[in-house]
Amino acid sequence: MTEPKPAEKPEPDDTAPVTPAPETAPERPAEEPADQERRPGFGSLFLRYVTTANTVMVTLYSFLLAMVIGAVLIIVSDPAVRGTFTYFFSRPTDALSASWTAVSDAYAGLFAGAIVNFTTLAEFQAGEATIGRLLSPISETLTYAAPLILAGLAVGLAFQAGLFNIGAQGQVIMGTVGAALIGFGLHLPAYLHLPLALLGGAIAGGLFGAIPGVLKAWSGAHEVITSIMLNYVALSALGWIITNEFVKDPDPNKQYAISKPADESSLLPRLAGMLGIDAPGLRANLGIIVAIAAAALVAWLLAKSTLGFRMRAVGLNAHASRTAGMSVPNTYITSMGGAGALAGLAGATLVLGISPHALTHGVAGEVGFDGITVALLGRAKPWGVVAAGLLFGALRAGANTMQSTLPLDMVTLLQALIVIFIAAPALVKAMLHLKVPAGGLATTTAKGW
Amino acid sequence: MANDHIDLTVEPGEIHALLGENGAGKSTLMNMLYGLITPDEGEIVIGRPDAADPDGELVDTVHRFQSPGDALDAGLGMVHQHFMLVPVFTVAENVILGRETSKGRTGLLDRDSARAAVREVSERYGLWVDPDALVEELPVGVQQRVEIIKALISDCELLILDEPTAVLTPQEINELLDIMRQLRDDGKSIVFISHKLKEVKAIADRITVIRRGKVVGETSPTASESELAAMMVGRDVRLTVEKEPASPDTPVLEISDLTVADDRGTHAVDGLSLTVRSGEIVGVAGVQGNGQTELAEAIMALAPTIGGTIRIAGDDMAHAKTHEIIEAGVGYIPEDRSLDGLVRDFTIAENLILNRYNRPPYARRGVLNAAEIQRRAADNIETFDVRTQSADHTAASLSGGNQQKVIVAREFSRPLKLLIAAQPTRGVDVGAMEFIHSRIVAERDSGAGVLVISSELDEVLALADRVAVMYDGKIIAEVSPDTPRDEIGLLMAGSTGDDEEAAGD
C-alpha cells in the first residue's frame, strides 16, 4: 500500500536538478539556514537511520535475521526439544525453556569458542587458568581469519574492477604451492626465507590469477567461466605436484600424499612468541598482520593511486574509461593479477602458518570459495572485508566449541543465511519494512552478467 | 519537491503542450497521471462520456491511481520516451500484450483478431504499420507508431507523449505531427511533453510552461519562441549562436578515404574524406545512423578502421591509441553522455579528471593528488556553472544539462587543437544549450578546429561555418550554412542532383 507520505520538510532547491536562473545563483547558500532551523534531533535521525535499508543496517539485520532463522533450525533439529513441542499446549513452558536452552547454549558456545569463554575468564582471575587458555578463542579466530581476509580481498579487488573472480580457490592453491616450494626447497636465514616464501605464494597466485584476465583482454572470454575451470586445473596440478619426486615427503610411513614440510625459517612466527607470552597452544601467527597490511595496501591503492582510479573507473563504466583513453584490457589483466597475488598470499599463510606446513590435497580447504562470501559480506571494500573475514573466522573458531551441542554444518548454514540476506537487500527490506535509502538499495555485483 | 501544486486542464480534442526544461518536473507530473507515482496532495479528475448517454455531458470522476493499470482503465494512454516494446515480438503481438485473447476453447493465442485490430486502428488514423513485422526490425519512428497504436487500441481518450520527437528524424517528426493532428480531429486529447520550441509552436493548441515544479504560465502557440524560452528558463535567452565570421587556418584534421566497419561488419563509414581547419567549425548534418557515430569513434581510435588515413595536426594518427590522440590535443564530447562520457557513480571531481587522472598535476608517480583534484573541480564548477552542492556528489545526481557541462568542462580545460563534439546538446535544456554553444564558439575563436556532429539540423546550421552532409557513410556534399533547410533536408535523404550540387561550395 502506498499511502500519501506526510509532507516532507522542504529541501533546499538545489538538490533537485535545477534550471538556470542567474539572478538566484549567487545567493544559493543563503537558502540553507532556513532549513537548518528545522533540522530533526538526534533521536529521530537515529530512528530514521535504523529503519532505512542502508548498507550498514542491512548487514546488521542480515546477521540478526540469520541468527533468528538459525535459532528456529536449532530447535527443529534437536530431537529432545522437538519432543517437548508434542505436549506444547498442556505445558508450553517445557517447550519454551528447552528451546531457549538449546538456542542459547549453541550461541553461547559459539561466542565462547570465538571470543572469550567467561568460565575461563573467572578461572583466570582466580589464578587457576593460564593466559594461553584465556586467549585461545581469540587466537583461533585470528588464525582462521587471516587467509579468509586475504582471499576476500582477492575477490573484492576484482569486484572493484568489475570482474567476478570465482577463481580465488585455484589462486589460493597455487599460492600454497609457491610458498611451499620455496619453504622446503630453499634453505635461508629466516629474515630472507619468510619474505621470499610469502612472495613466492603471491607470485604463483598472481600469475595464475592473471590468466583469466589475459583471456578476457585478448578474446573476451568471460572471467567467471575461465576462472571456475581454472580452479579444477589448479586442484589437479596440486595433485600432480605433490606426487612429484622433488616435492613428495620421502617418509614411507606417511599414509597419504603430502609434501616435505617447509623449513622452520620460512614459517610465519606466532604472535604469542613475538609478544613474549609463553603459551604454546596459541596458533595465531603473523598471517593476520600480513592480512591487515594487505587490506591497508588495497585500501590505499583504490583510494589514492592512479591504478586504483583506473580500476574503479573501468569497473563502473568500461565504455567511459575507454573513451577517456584508459586501456581496459590492461586493467583487466592487472586487476586479476593483483587479485591472484592476494589469493596466493592467502595460500602462503595457510602453508606457512598452519601445521603441518606442507602441501596436501586439502591444504587450501574452501578458503578461496569462502573468500567470495567474505567479499560480498564486506561489500568489496577493504575494511569491510577485514570485518567480514574476522566474523567468518570467529564463526569457524566458534563452531569447534559449538560442535559439542550442534553439528558443524549449523555454522556453515548460518554463514550461508547471512550471505543470502546480504546479497538480497530487497528481501531484508521487505521482511522488516525498511525504507529505501536515497541512493537506492546497494548490491555488490560484477558487470557483464 | 518535483511538483508543487500544479493545475493542468486538458480539454477534449486538444493538443496541450507541456513545456519545460529537463528536470522541471514534466515527467514527474506525467508519471503521476499514469499511476507510476502517487501524488502526496491534489486530485486527478477525468471526464468521460456516460455509458448510457454517449452524446451527453461528460461525467467527471476523481481518481487516485495506484498503478498504470488504473490509469489505462480510466482511458489514459502513455507513450514513453523509451519504448516499452518486446523487440522479438511482432507488432500485433506487442499490441495485445497484457490483453491476450485466445481462440475459443483451444487456448491458442488469437493472432488474427489482433492483426485485424491493428489494421483497423492503422487505417482509421493513417498510422500505417505491418502487423506481422518484428518490432526490432522497424525504424524508431515506426516503433513509436506501434506504441501509439497500443494506446489507441485500449480505447484511450487522453494520450500522453513524453518527448516523442527526441528520437526521430526531421521527416519522421513531420509524420508524427500529422498523426497527432488527425487524432485531435478525431476527438482525442493529447498531452505533448517537449522542450523543443519549434515543435511545440507547430502543433499545440495550448501551452503550459512549468519551471522548478511549478506552472509558470499558460500561453498560446502564437507566442514567439523567445517568449516561450524566457518563460521556460526564467530569463531572456539567445536562441541563435552569435559568432564572428570564421578565419580558417591550417588543417588540424585531414581524413581521406576512411572506411570503418560497424558491429555487423557493414561499412558504416565508406571511403569518407573531410578536412577541418583550425579556427573553423565544420558541422556534419545527417539523419542518425548514416555513420556519424562511427566517424567520431574512428577519429578517437575507439572504432577500428579498415582503411584510409587520419591526420591530426599533420601527424598520421590512424594507428594511434585513444590516449595518444587525447594527448595530441583532441577534445571529445561523446554522443552517448551516460555511457561514454561519464562514470555515473564517480564524483564530479573524479569525472573532471577522467582523461587526465595519471598526469601532473593530478598525479605524480602513480599517486593521486587529492588537493589538486579538488582545486580543479572547484574551479571548473565555478567557471562552467555546474549546478551542484559539492564536487563530491556523484555525476548521476546531476541533471542532464549539468552532466554535459561536466564533460564540456573536462574537455575544454586544456589547450585543444581539435574538438570533436558529437550531439553536444542532446537532452540538454535551453539554458545549458546556449552555454555549451558559446563555449564551442569560444574554442574555435581561440584557434581550435571543431567538428560538430549532430542529428539536430538547427544545431548544425547555427554553429557551423561549413556544413558537410553525411549520407550512407560518405560526405555527399559540403554546403554553406545559409543553404535553405529544404535543400539540406533533401541532401540528408541522399538525393544529389546536379542542381543541389551547385548550391554547395
UniProtKB/TrEMBL annotation, chain A:
This is Simple sugar transport system permease protein. It is found in: Cell membrane. Residues 1-12, 25-39 have a biased composition (Basic and acidic residues). Its main location: membrane. Residues 1-39 are annotated as: Disordered. One of its GO terms (cellular component) is plasma membrane. CDD domains: TM_PBP1_transp_TpRbsC_like (cd06580). Keywords: Cell membrane, Membrane, Sugar transport, Transmembrane, Transmembrane helix, Transport. One of its GO terms (molecular function) is transmembrane transporter activity. The keyword Disulfide bond does not apply. The keyword Cell membrane applies. It is a multi-pass membrane protein. The lineage of its organism: Bacteria, Bacillati, Actinomycetota, Actinomycetes, Glycomycetales. The chain crosses the membrane at residues 46-76, 144-165, 196-215, 224-242, 284-303, 382-399, 411-428. PANTHER family: ABC TRANSPORTER, PERMEASE PROTEIN, GUANOSINE ABC TRANSPORTER PERMEASE PROTEIN NUPP. Residues 15-24 have a biased composition (Low complexity).
Automatic annotation (TrEMBL), chain B:
Residues 1-237, 253-497 form the ABC transporter domain. Keywords: ATP-binding, Nucleotide-binding. The keyword Hydrolase does not apply. CDD domains: ABC_Carb_Monos_I, ABC_Carb_Monos_II. The keyword Lipid biosynthesis does not apply. Pfam families: ABC_tran (PF00005). SMART domains: AAA (SM00382). GO terms for molecular function: ATP binding; ATP hydrolysis activity. This is Nucleoside ABC transporter ATP-binding protein. It comes from Stackebrandtia albiflava. The lineage of its organism: Bacteria, Bacillati, Actinomycetota, Actinomycetes, Glycomycetales.
